[in-house]
């Protein structure tokens, strides 16, 4: 009842009006203050992006818009079309969910019900909110599947989620969200789990639908490039607070908050030369005990005395552009200048390229799904999949070879063959012209020591029951012959200092550290034996951008100090641009193109490489949706097939 | 297609298991000290008499020849003669099997839906009163063996409150369905034992499903709670539960032995207990083989049902 006059009072009706939203997990003074006093408005048809790293509270806000905060306490006001979401009865709430506001999720595979045909999952929303009969709801469901550009929608509607590719699943989720012509779409990292070419077509689809239907969008992402492709306005979240807000161009091209500026400098892109990334030191504050001053002060490069004492408010720095910073008008003078890419700094200084390659990968092949060991009757022989198909590559001493590919390209299988974790069906791995045994346990101690591994997920790669001292000390004992005692501890401390962790981490367990810290421990462990080559399998893809920059810098420093070679596996072309001396593009188990980063990124020859590069969401204004999209759609079709 | 190969493969496995079971039972019984001849004659028999009986029963022939002969007979429906009754085993076995099947199937028919319903109810609000009541009951019932529950049931319902017969006292050839009142207590005891296990399996699966992203999707579509639970969560909980029910078949058969003995119900379990105490070796062998087959078929049916309920496995 209160909602009506409020709608009449507001100057322009907003589709979503969030005022003073705070969300706390847990009770009392020890509660985790995940979101604090966040306010923003989304006009009809507008796309608003919330950018933030892990722990910023962005997903919590997204779900709060649909009042889905299972464990948290919410205060503040969320008006959807002038109606207070927090004050609704359960029936009213169910009536707007899926009809006025609907959601698109990060992981479409788990968001769809595995036991129900996708057509029915869409049709039931229509029946729920529109009271149509079964046949008409099904017909609309098929029409929606066509609208999200799925081929043969009538046939797809009968499938189960597991029978679709990731991109197709996300199209189904989008069709489901559009089923009742909602006025607001909430998208929680809708392309994060997808390959870059699939991501590009899904973003195109979202833009097409948004303009065709005039639906407002709340877009949650950690990826600034993706946000730039979709959003009209952007809010930057840090530790549960909005620190900057403005138009996409203002915030992403001319940021006025030290955190946003830091994020931009930490972002690896393929068009910037291989200059040093600037990381943001430190970590998120403890959100149980929020400091009195600016939450970003402990990590800020422009910090002043006032910042620790007084919390700044969001103040305008331009038309429609706000920043929560005391020094918002003096940042240019206070922040250290980012060194521009100079000829001397880039490309990566490399050791002499002339000599013999350190590591040779010769004709490696590996298939999966071979005939089972026990030939039981009625067991069908599945056709084997060639994950790695005749790959030959060299890595020079002190250099980085990056192998780039999308999911299923075979890049991780190749890394595992090199590391001796998988036995190749055919081919050799040669270290300094010496053929290595296919499996790591058959290799000699010096060979094992020379070739180390850094895994993607440090959580799974570190023993949760061991202290850092024991984790890093183990290879020292194994390869270095340092048995125990003070000498061992001194070496461990030296390694921890080299990875910017230091002595105070000795007694810590993995669960007591952040993701970035854990990955530094993995690096320290890999370097403990003073290896010649380190296989890095997506070492930063589980990390936030600011932490990723620090880890990449760390890897470059260690390489220059020790002359170590890297086999660097990644799906991220921007990251590769910053770390690689040579790049190999992998697809369907084969290397389709290889060369220096300048060659591969500057003048890509293979159409697949061109499609990959075109698909990267950049900070540039939205791409023209004709030529590029057409080419990408072909790539998507090939991948989805 | 995948389903069909799966079923065919499981049938082949079942046959292999039955062959192994037959070899084992036949082998073990024949290796144990005191063979059939001693069992027939008793401890007082002279060695000459034993030898004569052994020869008459063909026990002096090699083990493998005897096994093949026995298996040949079984394949033709001839399980040999009971030592206790001196009559062919097959007809008796058939009647007993029928009686046990009636008891087992009624139990399954009541307990399976009931335990799933209780598990779902408990999972809706974990930790609340209803969940605690259901779960305490389940844990308590699970901790008590059938004979304790059975004796308590007899005490309550046929001695203190003489409502139901505490013993079936039935003729082996009588159809138990003609006296339904005699079935109530045995079925009740078996149902309680099964509820204890299956309701907790359902509860655990349901709690997991209710916390899953697809249930969140269904909720945020605006579907009412009952639809979210019954249409979105339950179909994903049923396949593992049905598999669990299949595994439970073995437990039901074990429970049958106890319950049939307790209530003097003329089923397979009672026949086996009698055969063991009389050292009626051919009957034991036949019984074990039939029980193994029943268990295997029960599991197979459960797996096929789980397969049909799960689109990911259906292919």
TrEMBL record, chain A:
InterPro entries: AAA+_ATPase, ABC_Ni/Peptide_Import, ABC_transporter-like_ATP-bd, ABC_transporter-like_CS, Oligopep_ABC_C, P-loop_NTPase. Gene3D superfamilies: P-loop containing nucleotide triphosphate hydrolases (3.40.50.300). PANTHER family: DIPEPTIDE TRANSPORT ATP-BINDING PROTEIN DPPD (PTHR43297:SF2), OLIGOPEPTIDE TRANSPORT ATP-BINDING PROTEIN APPD (PTHR43297). Signal peptide: none annotated. GO terms for biological process: peptide transport; transmembrane transport. Belongs to the ABC transporter superfamily. One of its GO terms (cellular component) is plasma membrane. It comes from the Bacteria. GO terms for molecular function: ATP binding; ATP hydrolysis activity. It is found in: Cell inner membrane. Keywords: ATP-binding, Cell membrane, Membrane, Nucleotide-binding, Transport. This is Peptide/nickel transport system ATP-binding protein. It is a peripheral membrane protein. It comes from Humitalea rosea. Residues 16-264, 359-613 form the ABC transporter domain.
UniProtKB/TrEMBL annotation, chain B:
Coiled coil: none annotated. Keywords: Cell membrane, Membrane, Transmembrane, Transmembrane helix, Transport. GO terms for cellular component: plasma membrane. InterPro entries: BPD_transp_1_N, MetI-like, MetI-like_sf. Belongs to the binding-protein-dependent transport system permease family. It holds the Pfam family BPD_transp_1_N. It comes from the Bacteria. One of its GO terms (biological process) is transmembrane transport. It is found in: Cell membrane. Residues 97-302 form the ABC transmembrane type-1 domain. The chain crosses the membrane at residues 12-32, 101-124, 144-163, 183-202, 248-268, 288-309. PANTHER family: DIPEPTIDE TRANSPORT SYSTEM PERMEASE PROTEIN DPPB-RELATED, PEPTIDE ABC TRANSPORTER PERMEASE PROTEIN. It is a multi-pass membrane protein. This is Peptide/nickel transport system permease protein. PROSITE patterns: ABC_TM1.
């Amino acid at each position: 009842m209160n909602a009506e006059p409020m709608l009449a009072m507001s100057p322009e009706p907003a589709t979503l009006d969030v005022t003073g939203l705070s969300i706390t997990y847990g009770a009392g003074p020890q509660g985790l203050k995940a979101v604090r006093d966040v306010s923003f408005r989304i006009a009809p048809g507008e796309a608003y992006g919330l950018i933030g790293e892990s722990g910023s509270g962005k997903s919590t806000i997204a779900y709060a818009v649909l009042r889905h905060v299972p464990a948290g306490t919410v205060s503040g006001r969320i008006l959807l079309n002038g109606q207070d979401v927090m004050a609704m009865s359960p029936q009213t709430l169910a009536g707007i969910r899926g009809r006025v506001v609907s959601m698109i999720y990060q992981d479409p595979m788990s968001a769809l019900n595995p036991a129900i045909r996708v057509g029915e999952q869409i049709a039931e929303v229509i029946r729920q909110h529109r009271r149509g009969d079964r046949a008409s709801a099904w017909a609309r469901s098929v029409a929606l599947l066509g609208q999200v550009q799925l081929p043969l929608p009538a046939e797809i509607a009968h499938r189960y989620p597991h029978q679709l590719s990731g991109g197709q699943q996300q199209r189904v989720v989008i069709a489901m969200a559009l089923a009742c012509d909602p006025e607001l779409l909430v998208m929680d990292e809708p392309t994060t789990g997808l390959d870059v070419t699939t991501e590009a077509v899904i973003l195109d689809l979202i833009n097409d639908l948004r303009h065709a239907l005039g639906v407002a969008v709340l877009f949650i992402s950690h990826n600034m490039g993706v946000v730039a492709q979709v959003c009209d306005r952007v809010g930057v979240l840090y530790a549960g607070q909005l620190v900057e807000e403005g138009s996409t161009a203002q915030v992403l091209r001319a940021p006025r908050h030290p955190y946003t500026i830091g994020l931009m400098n930490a972002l690896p892109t393929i068009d910037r030369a291989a200059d040093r990334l600037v990381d943001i030191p430190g970590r998120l504050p403890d959100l149980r005990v929020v400091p009195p001053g600016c939450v970003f002060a402990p990590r800020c490069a422009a910090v002043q005395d006032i910042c620790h004492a007084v919390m700044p408010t969001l103040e305008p720095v331009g038309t429609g552009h706000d920043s929560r910073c005391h020094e918002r008008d003096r940042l240019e003078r206070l922040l250290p200048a980012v060194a521009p890419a100079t000829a001397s700094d880039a490309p990566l200084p490399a050791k002499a390229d002339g000599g013999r390659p350190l590591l040779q990968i010769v004709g490696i092949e590996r298939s999966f799904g071979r005939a089972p060991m026990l030939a039981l009757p009625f067991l069908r022989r599945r056709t084997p999949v060639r994950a790695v198909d005749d790959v030959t590559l060299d890595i020079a001493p002190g250099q980085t070879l990056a192998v780039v590919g999308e999911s299923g390209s075979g890049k991780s299988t190749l890394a595992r063959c090199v590391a001796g974790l998988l036995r190749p069906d055919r081919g050799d791995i040669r270290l300094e012209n010496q053929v290595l045994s296919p499996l790591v346990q058959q290799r000699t101690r010096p060979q094992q020591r020379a070739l180390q591994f850094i895994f993607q997920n440090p959580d799974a790669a570190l023993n949760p029951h061991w202290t850092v001292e024991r984790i890093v000390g183990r290879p020292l004992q194994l390869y270095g012959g340092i048995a125990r005692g003070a000498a061992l501890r001194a070496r461990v401390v030296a390694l921890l200092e080299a990875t910017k962790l230091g002595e105070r981490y000795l007694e810590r367990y993995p669960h007591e550290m952040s993701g970035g810290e854990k990955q530094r421990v993995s690096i320290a462990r890999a370097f403990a034996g003073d290896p010649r080559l380190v296989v890095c399998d997506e070492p930063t893809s589980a990390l936030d951008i600011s932490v990723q920059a620090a880890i990449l810098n760390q890897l470059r420093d260690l390489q220059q100090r020790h002359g170590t070679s890297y086999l660097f596996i990644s799906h991220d072309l921007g990251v590769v641009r910053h770390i690689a001396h040579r790049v190999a593009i992998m697809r369907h188990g084969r290397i389709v193109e290889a060369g220096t980063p300048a060659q591969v990124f500057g003048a890509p020859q293979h159409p697949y490489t061109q499609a990959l590069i075109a698909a990267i969401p950049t900070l540039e204004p939205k791409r023209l949706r004709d030529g590029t999209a057409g080419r990408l759609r072909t790539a998507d079709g090939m991948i989805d097939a | 297609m995948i389903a069909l190969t799966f079923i065919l493969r499981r049938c082949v496995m079942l046959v292999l298991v039955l062959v192994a079971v037959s070899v084992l039972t036949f082998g073990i019984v024949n290796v144990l000290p005191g063979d059939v001849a001693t069992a027939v004659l008793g401890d007082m028999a002279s060695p000459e008499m034993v030898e004569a009986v052994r020869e008459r029963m063909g026990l002096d022939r090699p083990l493998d020849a005897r096994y093949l002969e026995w298996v040949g007979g079984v394949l033709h429906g001839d399980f040999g003669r009971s030592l206790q009754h001196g009559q062919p085993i097959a007809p008796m076995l058939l009647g007993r099997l029928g009686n046990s099947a009636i008891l087992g199937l009624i139990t399954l028919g009541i307990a399976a839906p009931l335990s799933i319903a209780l598990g779902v109810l408990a999972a809706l609000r974990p930790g609340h009163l209803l969940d605690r009541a259901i779960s305490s009951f389940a844990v308590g019932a699970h901790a008590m063996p059938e004979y304790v529950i059975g004796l308590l049931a007899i005490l309550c319902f046929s001695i203190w409150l003489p409502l139901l017969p505490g013993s079936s006292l039935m003729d082996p050839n009588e159809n138990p369905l003609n006296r339904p009142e005699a079935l109530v207590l045995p079925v009740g005891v078996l149902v309680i034992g099964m509820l204890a296990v299956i309701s907790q399996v359902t509860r655990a699966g349901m709690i997991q499903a209710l916390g899953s992203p697809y249930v969140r999707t269904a909720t945020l579509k605006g579907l009412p709670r009952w639809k979210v639970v019954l249409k979105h969560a339950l179909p994903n909980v049923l396949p593992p539960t049905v598999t669990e029910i299949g595994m439970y078949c073995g437990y039901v058969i074990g429970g049958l032995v106890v319950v049939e003995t307790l209530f003097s119900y003329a089923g397979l379990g009672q026949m086996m207990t009698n055969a063991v105490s009389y050292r009626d070796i051919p009957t034991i062998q036949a019984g074990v083989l039939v029980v193994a087959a029943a268990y295997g078929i029960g599991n197979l049916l459960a797996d096929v049902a789980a397969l049909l309920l799960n689109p990911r496995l259906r292919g």
